[in-house]
Design goal:
The complex is a heterodimer of chains A (602) and B (167). Chain A has helices spanning 2-8, 14-37, 41-50, 56-69, 74-87, 89-115, 120-144, 150-180, 188-219, 221-256, 262-301, 307-343, 349-354, 380-387, 412-420, 463-475, 481-491, 494-502, 518-521, 556-562, 570-601; strands at residues 370-371, 377-378, 427-434, 444-451. Chain A is mainly alpha-helical. In chain A, a hairpin with a 5-residue loop joins β1 and β2 (377-378). The two termini of chain A are 67 Å apart. Residues 45-69, 405-427, 450-461 and 509-542 of chain A have low confidence and may be disordered. Chain B has 167 residues and is α+β, with helices and mostly antiparallel strands. Chain B has a four-stranded antiparallel beta sheet with strand order 1-2-3-4. Chain B is globular and about 50 Å long. The model of chain B has no long low-confidence stretch (mean pLDDT 85). Classes of the chains: A mainly alpha (602), B alpha+beta (167). Chains A and B meet through α10, α14, α15, α16 and α21 of A and α1, β1, β2, β3 and α4 of B. Chain A: Residues 415-424, 518-544 have a biased composition (Polar residues). Chain A: It is a multi-pass membrane protein. Chain A: One of its GO terms (molecular function) is ubiquitin protein ligase activity. Chain A: Residues 359-397 form the RING-type domain. Chain A: Residues 464-506 form the CUE domain.
Chain lengths: 602, 167
Amino acid sequence: MPIIVMERLPLPNLRTYTCASVLALSACIYYATYIVKDPDWNTSKSDLEIAPPNSEGEFVNNNTNNTSADERTFSQFTGDAFSVMTKEPVCVWIMINMAYCWLILLGRCVQKFVFGQLRVSEQQHLEEKFWNFVFYKFIFVFGVINVQYLEEVLLWCSWFSLLGFLHLLSQLGKDRFEYLSFSPTTPAWSHAKLLGLLGCIFAFSLFMFLVSIFVGFFQGLNTFAFMSAEVILLGIRTLHVIVRYALHLYDICRESNTSLNRDTATALEKRGPVIYYIELGFEIAALVVDFVHHVHMLLWSNIFLSMASLVICMQLRYLFHEIQRRCKKHRNYLWVLNHMEQNYPMASAEEIAENSDNCAICWEKMETARKLPCTHLFHTMCLQSWLEQDKSCPTCRLTLNIENPSDNRPEPSEIQHNPTQPTRQPLNHFFHFDGSRYVSWLPSFSVEVSQLPRLSRAAASNSQLDAMARQVQQLFPHYTIPIIIEDLRVTRSVELTIENILDGRLNSPPVFRESDDPSSSTSNVPLSLLQNNEQPSHSSNSQQNWDEITVENVESEDAVAIGSRFSKSPTEREQILYKRKERLIQTARKRYVEKQKKISET
Amino acid sequence: MAGSALRRLMAEYKQLTLNPPEGIIAGPINEENFFEWEALITGPEGTCFEGGVFPAKLIFPPDYPLSPPKMQFTCEMFHPNIYADGRVCISILHAPGDDPMGYESSAERWSPVQSVEKILLSVVSMLAEPNDESGANVDAAKMWRENRDEFNKIAERIVRRTLGIPT
């Protein structure tokens, strides 16, 4: 797989790369100025061919021209130097390299400023997206439009580089937003930074759309369609994140000044479908644009039996399935909604007052509710989202008679997968390029592009990784699963990880399996709860002296401080939780030791 | 989506803090990520796991409570219903759709009215009474059936380890 190869390449770090680029550029500039400094630079080249046969008078004229050229202004001078640089191929490459260097530096700055340290899953998404993008654009440029001239390649490359850069930032923004929405306490400042970045990306995508219109005006509709498709996708995705973000922030604000009366509650109920349709609109729009773009590419390339069209067809199939899946899900949604409205009446105010409980699904107060045949009450929205995936009452498990007569009900397994894993099917694109079919000396190769299952928050429990890790652990039982998984994340292959272990590249964990070394036994206990205990000395005989094991007395006054209260401040909550855990372990320890003492006495 | 999940988790955390069940503590490892909790469970009295304090990690999906969380012990465990890597296999943690063992009725599965507290209490009762029909750990299930003394010895060792007492 290409991904692994690239990861194993010894890429220089950013600093050396930047230094090298800057050095190369300065050498290039020095070269240009050196040439331009010679007042004859412009003539020396062109005149060599023309001047000799000319008359003497004209030669003198040339000379006077040159002397006046010495008084060129600075801007003229730099202009000349620049034109020299654009003519020299090496300089051109160096300048292109410098442009990429700038882009990378810019990306790094944005990352430092907005995101700080990237999380593992974010890095993985980024890499995945990057290689996918590079791969598909490579196919596009060389397989679909089949560019012939270097200038064209450069133009397309720069266009897609910029777009890819924005795509990556947008992806990063989305990941980070999803992560931030997991936390109740995020400073407003980081929200502002992230939203600002997303806004910038959106503005850029608008600007690039204008550029593509401008270019398309001269180059024709096809070029416009090709250029704008990715831009539109970028715009849609970014706007989607922004809208979701805005709704999320709105939710948070609403929560902070909680004054839920009946009006706001009904407004909330109404808001549910609106949000749903916004989501649906964005998702479908992105899929359709992508689909149309691929169809366009397929028709345009006009060669149906090529590697490129194969890749495009694969992608088309995937997109088609996605659209189909989304439609199915939507039909299910409509069906459930309809069914609910027909069969489950809204509960009256008295009924709600009678069942003064909160909604069992979201644990929040019910101002309006729907009643199931088994008289259980739930919020409309909560009930709706549950019924989409299961047809029974959440409380009493009464099977509800929801049978979709139009037989479009997706199979239960599918419904099950929808909410949690939108695009989890591992997609393997495999294709083979047989170069000898075209030119005898061309090599043949096979490429497999696999969209690796996303290792996001659910990463810890990713079954594939787990299975691989267990495979490795069977060979090396003294390595813990988390350490193996950590390495597997990088290598993505059992063999490579085993190699790493054999070469000693993996940190050996503290050994505690089956060993009877007492000092290691504490490594099981999480946190560092046991640090303050004196480590009991090793007693080799099976009859232990229980008096040796000292147990800290659990301070009773601490209990009051910890008490049963739920602090408003997150840090205090964390501290209290930590103390409670500590106390639980200490108490258990003490009790255990006392019990053993009693047993050994008798 | 995550908003309502967050509110519900906050409510559960509050309830578990103010009204903790005996011998059980649970809460987010770090409040920056409310979807990853650590729980400490005390082994039930009168069983071979008596006295041990077992740490476990709970990972919640973004659409909680519509989907169940995942639970994994972070200490060494030897139990018929716990995989070798610590993942817990009880019916309450299975979404209504999937049935890895192929015998559970949907009534025992996850539903949004379940909660962290109920999960942890079920785990406590699972520790007390293993279900040796569902073989998450076949070795443990076999030993539990056929060689209870040996099983108790291993459990004893695990309990000591969790308490930091030499075996």
